[in-house]
Every structure is written in structure tokens, then in C-alpha cells.
Amino acid sequence: MDPTTNSNSSALPLKTKPYPRKRDEAAMSKVKELTLTSVSPKLPCGVTHTSPALVFSTGGYIGNFFHQFMDVLIPLFITVNSFFPENQDFILVISDYQDWWTPKYKDLLPRFTNHPIINMDNETITHCFPSVIVGLVSHGYMIMNPTLLPHPKTLVDFHYFLLNAYHQYQDDRDNIINTRPRLVLVNRKDSVGRVILNLKEVKSTANELGFDVTVFEPNKNTSLAESYRLIHGSHVMLGVHGAALTNFLFLRPGCMLIQVVPIGTQWVSDQYFGGPARVLGLEYMEYKVRSEESSLVEKYGANHLALRDPEAFHGGNWSKMRVYMKEQNIKFDMVRFKRYMKDAYNKAKRFMDNNDS
């Protein structure tokens, strides 16, 4: 999606919703429509700015941590690098403003602009800008296409942009020589769907294999500083496919992301996390859930189409994905899990010995 600029006044007035997911009716229903029009230069300005504006929405799916990055922060990074020369000043103007959003990203947003962010929803005076860009550019699911940017950048550049913003929160443990690789076990506490039913066994087994295990249960109020401190100082991150895995963006290159892939979620697992993890140079591993490890087998039976052929079952209909995303929980086969994690331990220990000494 290309944003709209004010350069073609002949096309005005124009109605638009400044959010990237234009074909997603559910998301766009939560985004306020804006009208772009030409006005008389004699219109009185309450505030006259000398810097251009970039207007976007924090509506849509912004309540979901994954979508905060996929629908806003990565597109914002792409848009800034597409339309603004390096060191050019600009002002962020936000519609569908969420009071919690700017405090959550207080360390990141000043790296885009030093100007105060304007909450469009609360403004009662007219702001005048020399130019305006409305909307954000998205290249797809958690990706950046360098061929579409004037100065080629990839997700790796966004990764370092994040690390530079949060490096001040680096864990003191990074300076301590450890003999046990640190593993972050992401748990979907109190979530509906994709819950690890035998979490205690999983943690205990990982400990027995030699990992230093921390259970991470992020919620809406978890600070990015806290997340960075934990994830960046770890060697392995393990969790069931879900929004919290977005924290993999804080892992160091060469560290390991282990994504547990529930039945019926292979495509989204690879698109949202698997592919991007490989781009960032992470050691990526998948644990593909078998039917006997899924709670769906109890509800539908092992021979039901939902388990035998998920693609045929949902037929591309996202509403049917609810079966896999909301109704499914995981109980690991601990013999299989232990065998799998032995391999993960060897790789993590090798990375730790080569990089943390």
C-alpha cells in the first residue's frame, strides 16, 4: 500500500484510512476515515509548522503485540526511509490514538522524530504543514523489500534500529560468564488457545538438559525495556506460535528461536516468524505438533479432516482458523520433546561458548 501525498491536488477530495491492511475489512472497520481536500491558502492556521507531517492510524489490530510491529512500526520504518531523506525533520500525526501506545514505545519513537506527536483526535485547532504524507507503506508480513526503497534496507536494518533504541537496558548478566545457556520459555498465560498444558514438565526437562530457564508471560503492560533485557540476554527463545514470539526481534544474531507450530498453523508460523528469523541470522528451529499432542484430537478425533488435512478443512477461510488458533492447546510428548531439546541445547551451548566468553 502506497501512502497518499498532497502533491496531486487535482485528485482531491480523497477519502482514505491511513492503515496498511486495506483488504482486511475487520481491521479497517476500526480505522477512522480521513478526507483529504484542497483549501484556500487564506484559511487561518492555529499552528504553522515548518516540517512536513506523516499521518497514520493506531487503530485496526493495534491491541495485538504482533500487529503493533507488522502493521505500524515496520511500515513506519519503511515509510520514513522511503519518503524522507536522512536527517530530514518531520512530525508524526496519529489518528485513532491509543493513550497507552506512545508510552509503550517511548524509547523508539524519538528515533523517528524529535517533535512531539500530535494526537489528531484531540485537536481543536488547525495545523498547517508544508506537505503531508498520509498512510504507511507495507511490504508484507514482517518483511522489508530493499528493491522498493530508494536506499536499500532490510529487516536487519530495522533489527539494529530496535537494538540501538533499547541497548541501554542490556542485562548485567550479559557480562557474566555462564556455563548454562539461558532459555526463555514464552507462556500464553490465561490465553484462549495454544496454551502449553504440561508447562511444568517442559520447564523441568529443559532445566535437566542444562538450560537456565525463565518463564516469560508478557501482557499488554509489559515494558519493552523488560522484554529487551530478558530476550537480548538469552540464547534461546521457545514458544508456541503467537503474538509474544514477536519478541524474537530482540534476540542477537546466531541465537535460537524455537517455534512450536500447532496443527493448522504452518503457513502463518513460517510467514510471521520463521522466514523473518532466518533473515535476521537466527538459528531457527520448529517443533511441529503431532495430532496426539494437540487437544483437538480429543474434540474431533484423529481421523477428522481438521487434523488430517487442515488446508482442506479451512479452505483459506480465516474464520475457520479459529479452530487452530483458539480451540487448540498443546501437551508435549515429553520423550519426543526431550530428544528435540537435546539438539537445541548442543547448538545453544556452542553459540554461547563462542560468543559469551
From TrEMBL:
<dbReference type="GO" id="GO:0000139">
    <property type="term" value="C:Golgi membrane"/>
</dbReference>
<dbReference type="Pfam" id="PF04577">
    <property type="entry name" value="Glyco_transf_61"/>
</dbReference>
<keyword id="KW-0325">Glycoprotein</keyword>
<dbReference type="InterPro" id="IPR007657">
    <property type="entry name" value="Glycosyltransferase_61"/>
</dbReference>
<feature type="domain" description="Glycosyltransferase 61 catalytic">
    <location>
        <begin position="65"/>
        <end position="257"/>
    </location>
</feature>
<keyword id="KW-0808">Transferase</keyword>
<dbReference type="InterPro" id="IPR049625">
    <property type="entry name" value="Glyco_transf_61_cat"/>
</dbReference>
<protein>
    <recommendedName>
        <fullName>Glycosyltransferase 61 catalytic domain-containing protein</fullName>
    </recommendedName>
</protein>
<dbReference type="GO" id="GO:0016763">
    <property type="term" value="F:pentosyltransferase activity"/>
</dbReference>
<keyword id="KW-0328">Glycosyltransferase</keyword>
